[in-house]
Amino acid sequence: MAIVDEFTPKIATVLREGYTAADLRADALAGLTVAIVALPLSMAIAIASGVGPERGLYTAIIGGFLVSALGGSRFQIGGPAGAFIVLVAACVMQIGLPGLILATFLSGFILIAVGALRFGTYIKFIPYPVTVGFTAGIAVIIFASQMRDLFGLTLPGAEPAEILHKIEALWNARGSVTPAALALAVATIAIIQGTKRWRPHWPGMLIAIAVASVAAVGLGLPVETIGTRFGALPRTPPAPQLPVMDTALLMAALPYAVSFALLGAIESLLSAVVADGMSGRRHRSNAELVAQGVANIGSALFGGFCVTGTIARTATNVRAGSRGPVSGMLHAIFLLAFMLIAAPLAGYIPLAALAGVLAIVAWNMAEKAEFWALIRASRADAAIVLVTFLLVVFRDLTEGIIAGAAIGGAVFIRRMSEAARVEPAHGAAEMPVEQSGSAVVYRLHGAYFFGAAATVGAVLDSIADRPGAFVLDFSDVPFVDSSGARSFELLAKKMERTGGHLVLTGASPEVRRTLLAQGLREPHVRWRATVADALAEFGGPPG
């Protein structure tokens, strides 16, 4: 029954608790608020990712509805996310739009498998400095990708993907700055920041986009718009169809699918944790991953791209008074209504204004205070966050995450190894070490695993050089792995050769099972419940 509960969507829990008309009104207002935020963001993220703005709306409508309807979080809002811009743009550049849709489709099945295998808990173990580093790196890349539209630059060819070449190309095109585009971008940023400070409950992004669009049309400004670059937006999502599948495209799309699934899992679970912190609720990690998988499959069927939980929109949903997943479902319906009724108006939106929106997104994503706090915290944390950040910016997002997690794991192993120690047991009434045949009592502290085995094992070997009873108290050892258990087996054999006894006390059932599995059984070692029992039997002089 517990497994069933673990995968039950939160919508079922909310309905089971009792859902009233007042709850529906609160969710409708929250859903409308989130839709107002999601509308410009979805189109801006899609454009920055190298696809048409309509695909951002397909992703938010289909993916957003499925995430809320099937997910394990009450307040999660799904849709296109700024964190994916780098990966999606690289995917489109390498294997085209059909490859992107196929990669999204495949990532859905990977996420379903990860959730079904109950791996959601482990994804949350990615070190905090890694998440800060890759988030800051993505923010830098997003901002760099918007500089062309922010300044209204005209490039002679395609904009380079690699950031150093991109900056070089943008600098070489500095003479083509369009003052009107720059003015609209600055005005957009100013309006968003101004409303956030003085009217925080107003939809600052939508107001900024509307003002910029009216100014561009009313003043006849020479700036690019959604309409001039992409044409008119469709009024409805397309009919569902399976992605193009051939062997070559499948093999090319698979690495991107894995990257989408990894980043999507991290982003969605981080978002769910943020929602938990704001609301006092608890999400179901594995149910959330399964829902993300279904949402990615659904998005791909309708021509959208990768879906994940979005932190900013989820936080907006909680602050707007959401009572549960219905608000997220309604947010998707409101976005669909916009497509049906007002799609032609989107053609007048200046790209410089959307670039201003994404500049704000990048600034907020960067987690500047957390980044500098980690730099100052310790050399290890600084190394993790800097390596992750630099690899994400100058190499590849996946490489940054893998390298950062690897360094973080190595740092953790070192710190845990240093925490493990062995020391004489005070008050155990052990007899003097110099007296041949006496019982010597030592207590182990901390997890005894492969990282600690070499360090602590050398200490134990030196203590066990003389014959007699060597009592090891495991009362303060929460965990022993096979490498640690193997070192005790070698110690026991050494004691047998010198005519001594290795006596183990205080081990928990889990630790005892691991030690027994490695051959630490009678008569090679002696098991006793407590140190007092061991001393009563082996504490006297040899007879």
Automatic annotation (TrEMBL):
Q: Does the keyword Transmembrane apply?
A: yes
InterPro entries per the record? SLC26A/SulP_dom, SLC26A/SulP_fam, STAS_dom, STAS_dom_sf
Q: Which cellular compartments is it found in? A: Membrane
**Principal place of residence:** membrane
Its Gene Ontology biological processes? transmembrane transport
Gene Ontology terms: cellular component? membrane
Q: Which UniProt keywords apply?
A: Membrane, Transmembrane, Transmembrane helix
* Transmembrane residue ranges: 28-49, 56-77, 83-113, 125-145, 173-192, 204-223, 253-275, 333-363, 383-413
Q: What are the residue boundaries of the STAS domain, all occurrences included?
A: 429-538
Q: Which PROSITE patterns match?
A: STAS
State the membrane topology: Multi-pass membrane protein
Protein name, entry field: Sulfate permease, SulP family
Q: State the species of origin.
A: Gemmobacter megaterium
